[in-house]
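Design request, tokens follow.
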């Protein structure tokens, strides 16, 4: 997720090539989810997810935990989908797990956008992305309160398997993608603010609780150097990470 100077990048190049097509599709009906502006299920989205911004004077677009200092071949993270409070603002926040991106220019990731529309409606949009390629959105049904599970794994030969599942709704999506140049230098389980300033702000998600947070099949706490980050906008901290206890932590919204 590359944002050297901006926290939100709109995908203006519609011809960015997808790195691979989905390896498998769930048998669930596609009628239960709404979507962002996009070309259809399993097509590029006009929104890119990005890597963390941490340089001096920049706002942070990631909240949550990462591990660094090793070579990472797998990451897992589960979360309970929070209800959004859309009374104050429209905006888009993502929950995901992935490899790379903490200090590299690629991210191999899979997750869910939670969206407050301008009309005050709530949308939940699952996606997969091999940044800097576009996101691929898919249309399985999702609702607040569901448990979502995610994993990204690689054998180290440039082939990645990315899996997102909603056991509450009974679906699983599996993608196989290739990125030969991935450094495998970090693993993350993240809340990401897609926009900053007016493109668009981050909505109030109250609290999101993560569990089964592992890298290389071990707890983040023992998988390397533990990194923590919180969302920040215009110098105002928006979230606070809770402590990582075993393989669980929460990210809490600080502002109404």
């Amino acid at each position: 997720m590359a944002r050297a100077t901006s926290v939100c990048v709109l995908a203006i190049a519609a011809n960015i090539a997808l790195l691979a097509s989905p390896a498998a599709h769930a048998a669930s009906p596609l009628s239960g989810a709404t979507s962002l502006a996009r070309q259809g299920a399993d097509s590029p989205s006009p929104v890119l997810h990005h890597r963390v911004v941490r340089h001096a004077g920049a706002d942070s677009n990631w909240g949550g935990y990462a591990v660094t200092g090793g070579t990472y071949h797998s990451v897992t993270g589960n979360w309970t989908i929070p209800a959004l409070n859309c009374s104050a603002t429209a905006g888009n926040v993502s929950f995901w797990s992935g490899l790379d991106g903490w200090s590299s220019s690629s991210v191999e990731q899979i997750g869910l956008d939670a969206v407050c529309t301008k009309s005050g409606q709530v949308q939940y949009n699952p996606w997969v992305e091999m940044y800097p390629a576009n996101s691929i959105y898919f249309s399985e049904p999702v609702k607040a309160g569901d448990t979502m599970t995610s994993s990204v794994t690689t054998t180290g030969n440039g082939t990645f398997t990315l899996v997102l599942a909603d056991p509450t709704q009974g679906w699983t999506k599996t993608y196989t993608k290739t990125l030969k140049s991935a450094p495998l230098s970090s693993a993350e389980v993240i809340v990401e603010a897609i926009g900053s300033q007016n493109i668009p702000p981050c909505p109030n998600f109250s609290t999101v609780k993560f569990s089964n947070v592992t890298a290389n099949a071990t707890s983040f706490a023992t998988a390397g150097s533990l990194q923590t980050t919180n969302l920040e906008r215009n110098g105002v901290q928006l979230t606070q990470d809770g402590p990582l206890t075993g393989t669980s932590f929460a990210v809490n919204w600080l502002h109404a």
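Comment from the thread starter after seeing the answer: thanks! The domain at 25-253 is CATH 2.60.120.700 (Jelly Rolls).
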